[in-house]
From TrEMBL:
PANTHER family: CHLORAMPHENICOL EFFLUX PUMP RV0191, PURINE EFFLUX PUMP PBUE. It is found in: Cell membrane. One of its GO terms (cellular component) is plasma membrane. It comes from the Bacteria. SUPFAM superfamilies: MFS general substrate transporter. One of its GO terms (molecular function) is transmembrane transporter activity. Keywords: Cell membrane, Membrane, Transmembrane, Transmembrane helix. InterPro entries: MFS (IPR011701), MFS_dom (IPR020846), MFS_Efflux_Transporters (IPR050189), MFS_trans_sf (IPR036259). This is DHA1 family bicyclomycin/chloramphenicol resistance-like MFS transporter. Residues 8-391 form the Major facilitator superfamily (MFS) profile domain. The lineage of its organism: Bacteria, Pseudomonadati, Pseudomonadota, Alphaproteobacteria, Sphingomonadales. Gene3D superfamilies: Multidrug resistance protein D (1.20.1720.10).
Amino acid sequence: MDQQRPAPLWLLGLIALGAVMTAHILIPALPFAAASLGANAREMQWTVSVYIVGLAIGQLIFGPLADWMGLRRILIAGLCLYILASIAAGMAMQAGTLVAIRLVQSLGGGVGLVLARAIARRGCEAREATRRQAMMNLLITLGPALSPLLGGTIAALWGWRMIFALLALFGCVNLIAVLRLIPDTDKSEASGGAVIRHYLQLMVTPYFVACSIAGGCFTTSMYALIGAAPFILVRQFGYTAGRIGPMLALATAGIWLGSIAASRMAPRLRTDHLLMAGGACVCFSSFGFLILVLKGGLTVPALIATMGIFLFGVGLSGPPALTLAISVNPLAMASGSGIYGATQMAIGALCSMASAQWADPARGAAVTIAAASCAGLLALAMMQFMRLKTYPNRPFLTG
């Protein structure tokens, strides 16, 4: 096997897609699973919540392990764990057992998510890495959109347990492809202690911290807006359930368009400038949305337009933010990818919870995304200051 051959981008995208898709695919089948296992709705909802938590934990754990033992080795181990957990989940006879197995499954999924990003960055200069991350995003964003539809169809036709059979099969296909198509990487010469030092240093490196915060504020803050949008359409504009889906799909197409734009612009723009452009779209739309809400001028077209611009900024800023973050320490790219991913998920959860505290969903979402945009701007300013002060001769931090 040619060790210099880059890993196929479509395969890295499928591996990351599997991790994201698994979080959502069971949602429409929860009532069927609850009836089969004799569980209530709250118990079954834990199967989704614990997966999200495990996904974040898995990224934090397996990133440094991969820097120590090699990306490909840990990726193979993670996929094996994912496959075995998927098979076990399909045979679970109690809700508590299913929840525990879903946690194990999420750890395997976290391996795929964090290492697919790190492998895509390996061996590329910053602009090419940003283009590759943007192309991967096109696949990853399919997960939340298609997995509930797929899960509901499978549960209706063959039962909810077949969902896990499909996930196990998907994991097997990815594993075989990894064994055949992803080049092996030499085991790091660094000791476990050195890897831990790199890991801890990243967590207190101002540039890396600022980049992770900016990336989270400009991307996963979207969950505050996406979560509030159905309530706005129903309560404020009287939409029925059947009309909500197409309107949200129209807006969320912005992520796709932003990812496409990032892949096209990456070869021509500095990576930090591309992040600034994406952040500008997020800030412009979030403050525009806040003004519309506060002045009582929000309409359906205005909601869809501001969401579309906001999500375009999300798709545009995500790839360069990730590329810059994991470029800080080339010896700890997997660790950086894991910390960055966990930070994104934490910011997304905080924004969702903050928005939900408001009685008025439009006002809650508007204030939350505007506050996140301000935090992102401050983090972006800190990134530029620290780059000029600490890394004046590190071209891969600009692209």
